[in-house]
Design goal:
- This protein is mainly alpha-helical.
- It contains 14 helices and 7 strands.
- It has one domain.
- The strands form 3 sheets. A 3-stranded mixed β-sheet has the order 3-6-7, with no helix packed on it. Strands 1-2 form a two-stranded antiparallel ribbon. Strands 4-5 form a two-stranded antiparallel sheet.
- Strand 6 and strand 7 form a beta hairpin.
- Helix 5 crosses helix 6.
- The longest helix has 17 residues.
Amino acid sequence: MEAIRGCFNLGSRRGNKSRSKSRGGSVEDSSNASTASSSNPSPRLAAPHPIPAGSEGKICPISGLFADAEIITVDAAKKSQLEELQADPDIAQELRALSMSEKLVQADKPAPKIRARKPAELVRFNAFDGSHKPNASTRQLVQTVGFEALFRMTHSFYQKCFVDSHVDTFIADHDEPHPERFALWIQEKFGDGTPWTQERRTRPKKYMKFGHETRQVAHDRSSAHFAAWHSPKRDPADWGNHFKPEDARVWMRLHFWAAREAGMFEHEAFMEYYTRFIGHFMSVYSSKAPPFTRESLRWSEDPKNIQQYLDAGRRMTDVIGKDTESELAKLPAAERIYTGSRARTAWPYEQR
């Protein structure tokens, strides 16, 4: 889920490579970046003047930027898209956490690890006012599973994403620590300390340029989503477009497949809650994606589905390009009902 990652992409494009591929497939030197079109992501820019000794890595008092920071240039009209993402209740909460004093964050120590001696009872999904809220029960769920298992799941997930012909177009750089960030995000969202918020404080500075305005990108899921929309690996016709339900469906299928292979379904109480957790957070990608959560989970139960996917060149031909309303009609009636992240009685918020 930076993640949800994010969740599609909890990191964003690195800019420290001297040569990179353009969206047309040609290789270009980053020293010529100043001539790049304003509709394409720009590689890392060199400082326009010598940097005095002892000032390396510090912010420029004139421009307000860092010399080694990446700048992604997009059309000024795209600014509202990023602001819309940042208005999501869960993402707004994450932004507030990042703005807190570092001392306050460090003082929030994780509780001692708890190992349940018997299966925990199913936990009611805890969300209100459009935002997921961790509590003692969710913290025990994630501590019972442990970070090692979370990382095993997220690592397997990204390995599948990197070779998926559709999802990989949203991931500009495989070298970013995507699995670690995703696992830390899950851990924090379940209430086990603030490891993801602390990790975000150490990331390289990144910026986005909207017309003549340059803004620092917050290290959160909204900016990661925005970067994924503008990944240079996307088809030019799709570049900058929002996620669609089919994008989220492929993402969820790969994710639950990875969870299954990592043994996560042995933790019944966690996975029942986690399925609802994913359903909730999918709404920021697409408001029509949450009803497909359980269908995405069931997909990897049948080895024939996986083999069909592999035979098609790791492309989910039964999802991509399909009409969303027709696909919704195929779901069990109880799973079609979704009235938004503020609902209390509709899927995924009712108890099983």
